[in-house]
Amino acid sequence: MPIVIEKEGKTASEATIKACEELGIPRSDVEVEVLTEGSKGVLGIGEKKAKVRVTVKGDNLSEKGLKAKKSLESILAHLVESYSVSLRETPERIKLEINLTEDKGLLIGKRGETLKALEFLVGKISVVNTENGRNKRVSIDVDGYVSKKEHNISKRVSDVIRKVKKTKKTQILERMSAYERRIAYMTLKRDKGVTYETVVDGDHKKIEIKPQG
Q1: Which of 20, 42, 80, 205 is 20 to 30 A from 129 in CA distance terms?
Q2: Rounded mean pLDDT for each run of 10 residues along the chain, 213 residues in total
Q3: Nearest alpha carbon to residue 77 among 85, 87, 88
């Protein structure tokens, strides 16, 4: 479903610029329908604002996704000198990829904590006054860091699954963060040959994988 928003301004051109700035996209990426022509009136009396309806070309992006990209770019402008942000969306997720040559560690942080905080902040900002794509989860990556990490976690879990199937013995995964456990659960759900449960070990949670039956 295409993104459609309406904006007012002194002129149709000004209203269009406001809409494009809000979405963070160029004029060439939208179609504009003038709903009301602006009028200055006489001596300031009877002044009437112009109103436009702006439709984003294509239906593979959401309003939340475009706002998330704009919000992220605004934050990055204060943190790094040179960068670019690409946006891709699925029915469930808004994926933002940051490309830069320097300061990767600054944005990623220890165990990806800074990146997750940035992801949380952008998600909160982009959902304000947004309906289109509101329920999509925002995810941010830096030069493939998250993708590689998720792949490695999934691979380690798959290795343990194969071991459980072969030995018919229960295995407990190493301690993981909530984010890492989520990736592990996704991997486990794709395999019907084992069962699993979360066990509490002191202040931490671990995943126990058991052979089926």
Answers
A1: 80
A2: 84 89 83 86 74 84 90 91 87 90 82 89 91 89 89 94 93 87 91 88 87 82
A3: 85
